[in-house]
Amino acid sequence: MKRSLLILLVACTAFIGAIVGSIFTLNYFDAGSSYNSIEERQNLKLANFSPDSSRYNLSTAPINFEVAANAVTPAVVHIRTIYGGGKFSINALDQYLNPHAVSSGSGVILSDDGYIVTNYHVIEEANTIEVVLNNNQRFFAKVIGQDPSTDLALLKIKAKNLPFVRYGDSDKIITGEWVLAIGNPFDLNSTVTAGIVSAKARNIGILGDKNNLQVESFIQTDAAVNPGNSGGALVNLRGELIGINSAIATATGNYSGYSFAIPVSLVKKIMDDLLEFGMVQRGLLGVQIADVTADLAENQDLKVVQGVFVRYVNKGSAAEASGLETGDVITAIDNHAVKGVSELQEWVARKRPGQTVLVKYLRQGEVREVVAKLKNFEGSEEVMKKPVNYEIEGAYFEEVPYSKLNELNLDGGVLVKKLSFGKWKKAGVKESFIITHIDKVAIDNVGDLNRALEMKKGGVLIEGLMMNGEKQTIGMDW
Known about the structure:
- A seven-stranded antiparallel beta sheet has the order 5-4-1-2-3-7-6. Strands 20, 21, 22, 23, 24, 25 and 26 form a seven-stranded antiparallel beta sheet that branches. It has a six-stranded antiparallel barrel with strand order 8-9-10-13-12-11.
- It has three domains: 33-280, Thrombin, subunit H; 287-373, Roll (Pdz3 Domain); 391-477, PDZ domain (Pdz3 Domain, Roll).
- It is of the alpha+beta class and 478 residues long.
- Helices cover 22% and strands 31% of the residues.
- The protein has helices at residues 2-28, 38-45, 66-72, 94-97, 120-123, 264-277, 294-299, 318-322, 341-349, 402-408, 423-427, 446-454, and strands spanning 76-83, 101-109, 115-118, 128-132, 138-140, 142-147, 152-156, 178-183, 191-202, 218-221, 233-235, 241-249, 258-263, 287-291, 308-313, 329-333, 336-337, 356-363, 366-373, 391-392, 395-399, 414-419, 433-438, 441-442, 459-466, 471-477.
- 40% of the residues are buried.
């Protein structure tokens, strides 16, 4: 009898342990994203969402800014960035009380579990990135990836059940359509301005890229945008994201009539690349191009005055393999008319290496079509994941086994497996130390560690614990 009771007790204990472990895993363990497309995540969360279409019938109803403003404002965040190096201070508030430089901008929450899009120039070279929600909750953000060529960056905060802005379709917006710009100009949180779409596919020459791969195909609006609005939302009257506010046309530094936003069609692709690969996968035709102008058409004896003129075809490129030649005039990509370089760049930039585009072009007045299989900058048709470095400055790192995370009640962490002479050892870090935070940002895996240290200059604050559970805080010059 006693033997039967003992077996029953063991079985019950194992069952309860399994349930508790499962709950812990589902609720607290963050092993990174389980999906590769933010749009899929949005669709999953919005599966039961059925908007009242009559409320958005713009042809009959009066213009209503209130619905979109109220829906989107909670999902637009204030981003505060701190720059500068110097020696590490044991006072954790020192960087806020005596910072080298502080800047601010905006961001847009894209998913309920904390992914945020902003401009690259908002967080460029920042030591610390702080995100303040509309309800004044504050988080320290990790950088998932950044792309200077489109001026976009993807951040992540550790939070759940957040409000987010659903993607719209920037291809369907039309000149004259009402839009709202929502952000934090001059540190004024949750500011909403209204305007119309003034133009599409604008190239204003503000982005630079070392490989000359910048993509400028902005939505131009006359909604008031000022310093601090960068990274904020441009939405239609249905509250759908159609762009990320990025720049203004001004001679004074403040709003002077026009603002420019990155179209969401491009944002979606860049965000998914950064989420899945940690870096942007740019598919390239491999051509040097120019807008067809009246002068160019006359000089080259072209039969059209709109399109993209091919000045040169790069050796070994997708364009060369498909048969494109110098002097061709590209008029459409995937059956979408391209009137200039900006439109062509945007349509091609939506594709990854290995994917194809249908190119319609004119050669000596004859309309032709060809399918080109895109390549990356190195000439490969393969996508590449950002490498993870397991050895950094004399320290060798490993992922912490799940069993140990469970034992220590940790969401994630990185184990210092081995030390040789270098910054880590000099700072007093010991082998078997588990790093859980760097400058208050959670470090869940070695990839997080790589990304966190990539942006650091000067001192960093390392938090963690030894394998026996003893907590430690260490300051290290970086």
